[in-house]
């Protein structure tokens, strides 16, 4: 009796060649409606599954292969006497190879106007059932869920033993269970979202390997990058690397940080990042002017930095960029001339990102040892409606512009965070300090003389008036901060004493 292979696929790519190889290897091929039609049209002889089950495909395809004559053939142990006698009694023959890919549920729910009915109809039931049966019985059955595996299986079947190896069968079975687990997680997350359930009793997250990395944060740490298939489409995971060395773990983190900052700006802007903190942010009428400001903001720290720009990089900007040692440049596009200039540097990584992406991650996650924290992304930007003027003096118009810039940047600086800036560039950034006045001193020292007439932004309220005092002494003219301290009045009095304008946003932007 011929060995049997059951092929039932939604995505038909590569299936014809695979079926032809199986035919050559003398397999009988069983198939469901659409797969059968496709293969027969291309000259492959097929036995219909319903010829075996003597039961038609019903309910618009909801029931095709869910039958003991199929699942008995998939689940029977080939060397178990009891199984073999039950098979014979019930007229069941073994199926040695199963090749199934599933209804495109993920692709269906990714369509913007998908209906619930359409989504439900794209939940595959018979396919995962066959995959799971075959994968459980991988001691005897070869199961394939990914067309990438067709060639490897054919190679083994062509070998001397004419069978796949136990290691291959186990590898393919593990892949199946990963695949069906991910498939179920898309379905459960979709239904959970429809019901608006926020914190279900379990969280099933699915990621796909983007790339193994040479190492992690340090060379002795192994690492890889996984992407969220239904996640943000304006992200480092959706970047296209057009030039340069392979991205590293730290590059990915830094590039992500740079992107989150650049997203705050509609006007031409440039952001330089080091160790996940901005070291310079500039805006201007052109992208070259914006980059120039970001460079001037801190021409020391930018060395070895990661740059994100929100306009196409032109030749003028490329010429400026190429004068500095940079790790990465991210932009919506690079002009041809810019590419010619920048690609002269072999190692620099050039990334394009679709800045018109509209999908956002619904949750941010971070691991702690033994667990996972989830929270909404911090999507609050500067909003005039939040602003309350706390001091006698109101900010002047140009100070207000600077306050907006400072507020948009300080949100992305590790807490405790202080930013000194004017209306189109940062002048000093104090990041990750254990006390607020310490962050202020770092930022003010870096700004130096440039602090005179500039503004200060603070990611959280001032617990006492010492930061206002330090700001005043350096010549700061306006401050933006959330407010909300029991001792706000002391800071307000201090600002009034020095004629500083201070505004409260009511929103805190801690970043750990
Ligand atoms: N209902 C069943 O018994 C069943 N058996 C196989 N399928 C799926 O039907 C698809 C192939 O269908 P066709 O060969 O008719 O194009 C495959 O994605 C397969 O996973 C089924 N469909 C859905 O549940």
TrEMBL record:
<comment type="pathway">
    <text>Purine metabolism; IMP biosynthesis via de novo pathway; 5-formamido-1-(5-phospho-D-ribosyl)imidazole-4-carboxamide from 5-amino-1-(5-phospho-D-ribosyl)imidazole-4-carboxamide (10-formyl THF route): step 1/1.</text>
</comment>
<dbReference type="GO" id="GO:0004643">
    <property type="term" value="F:phosphoribosylaminoimidazolecarboxamide formyltransferase activity"/>
</dbReference>
<dbReference type="InterPro" id="IPR011607">
    <property type="entry name" value="MGS-like_dom"/>
</dbReference>
<keyword id="KW-0808">Transferase</keyword>
<keyword id="KW-0511">Multifunctional enzyme</keyword>
<dbReference type="GO" id="GO:0003937">
    <property type="term" value="F:IMP cyclohydrolase activity"/>
</dbReference>
<dbReference type="Pfam" id="PF02142">
    <property type="entry name" value="MGS"/>
</dbReference>
<keyword id="KW-0658">Purine biosynthesis</keyword>
<feature type="domain" description="MGS-like">
    <location>
        <begin position="1"/>
        <end position="145"/>
    </location>
</feature>
<protein>
    <recommendedName>
        <fullName>Bifunctional purine biosynthesis protein PurH</fullName>
        <ecNumber>2.1.2.3</ecNumber>
        <ecNumber>3.5.4.10</ecNumber>
    </recommendedName>
</protein>
<comment type="pathway">
    <text>Purine metabolism; IMP biosynthesis via de novo pathway; IMP from 5-formamido-1-(5-phospho-D-ribosyl)imidazole-4-carboxamide: step 1/1.</text>
</comment>
<keyword id="KW-0378">Hydrolase</keyword>
<dbReference type="InterPro" id="IPR016193">
    <property type="entry name" value="Cytidine_deaminase-like"/>
</dbReference>
<dbReference type="Pfam" id="PF01808">
    <property type="entry name" value="AICARFT_IMPCHas"/>
</dbReference>
<dbReference type="InterPro" id="IPR036914">
    <property type="entry name" value="MGS-like_dom_sf"/>
</dbReference>
<comment type="similarity">
    <text>Belongs to the PurH family.</text>
</comment>
<dbReference type="InterPro" id="IPR024051">
    <property type="entry name" value="AICAR_Tfase_dup_dom_sf"/>
</dbReference>
<dbReference type="InterPro" id="IPR002695">
    <property type="entry name" value="PurH-like"/>
</dbReference>
């Amino acid at each position: 009796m011929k060995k049997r292979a059951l092929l039932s696929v939604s995505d038909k790519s590569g299936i014809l060649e695979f079926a032809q190889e199986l035919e050559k290897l003398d397999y009988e091929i069983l198939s469901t409606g659409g797969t059968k039609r496709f293969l027969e049209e291309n000259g492959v002889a097929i036995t219909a599954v319903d010829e075996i089950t003597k039961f038609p495909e019903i309910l618009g395809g909801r029931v095709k292969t869910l039958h003991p004559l199929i699942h008995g053939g998939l689940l029977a142990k080939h060397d178990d006497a009891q199984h073999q006698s039950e098979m014979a009694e019930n007229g069941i023959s073994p199926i040695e190879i199963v090749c199934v890919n599933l209804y495109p549920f993920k692709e269906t729910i990714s369509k913007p106007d998908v209906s619930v009915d359409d989504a439900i109809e794209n939940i595959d039931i018979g396919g995962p059932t066959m995959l799971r049966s075959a994968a459980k019985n991988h001691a005897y059955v070869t199961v394939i869920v990914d067309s990438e595996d067709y060639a490897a299986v054919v190679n083994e079947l062509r070998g001397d033993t004419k069978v796949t190896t136990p290691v291959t069968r186990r590898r393919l079975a593990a892949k199946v269970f990963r695949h069906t687990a991910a498939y179920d997680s898309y379905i459960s997350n979709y239904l959970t979202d429809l019901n608006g359930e926020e914190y279900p009793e379990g969280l099933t997250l699915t990621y796909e390997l983007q790339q193994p990395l040479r190492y992690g944060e340090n060379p002795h740490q192994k690492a890889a990058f996984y992407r969220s298939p239904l996640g943000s489409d304006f992200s480092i995971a959706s970047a296209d690397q057009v030039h340069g060395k392979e991205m590293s773990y730290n590059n990915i983190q830094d590039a992500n940080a740079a992107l989150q900052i650049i997203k705050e700006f509609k006007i031409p802007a440039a952001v330089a990042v080091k160790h996940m903190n901005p070291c310079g942010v500039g805006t201007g009428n052109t992208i070259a002017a914006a980059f120039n400001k970001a460079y001037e903001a801190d021409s020391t720290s930018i060395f070895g930095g990661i740059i994100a720009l929100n306009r196409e990089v032109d030749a003028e900007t490329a010429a400026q960029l190429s004068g500095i040692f940079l790790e990465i440049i991210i932009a919506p596009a690079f002009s041809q001339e810019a590419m010619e200039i920048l690609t002269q540097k072999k190692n620099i990584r050039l990334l394009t990102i679709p800045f018109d992406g509209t999908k956002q991650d619904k949750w941010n996650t971070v691991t702690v040892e033994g667990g996972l924290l989830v929270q909404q992304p911090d999507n609050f930007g500067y909003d005039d409606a939040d602003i309350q003027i706390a001091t006698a003096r109101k900010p002047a118009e140009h100070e207000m512009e600077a306050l907006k810039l400072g507020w948009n940047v300080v949100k992305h600086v590790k807490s405790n965070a202080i930013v000194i800036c004017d209306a189109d560039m940062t002048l000093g950034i104090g990041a990750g300090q254990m006390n607020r006045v310490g962050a202020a001193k770092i930022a003010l020292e870096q700004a130096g003389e440039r602090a005179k007439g500039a503004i200060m932004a603070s990611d959280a309220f001032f617990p006492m008036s010492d930061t206002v005092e330090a700001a005043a002494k350096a010549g700061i003219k306006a401050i933006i901060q959330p407010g909300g301290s029991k001792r706000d009045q002391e800071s307000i009095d201090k600002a009034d004493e020095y004629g500083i304008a201070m505004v409260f946003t009511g929103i805190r932007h801690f970043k750990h």
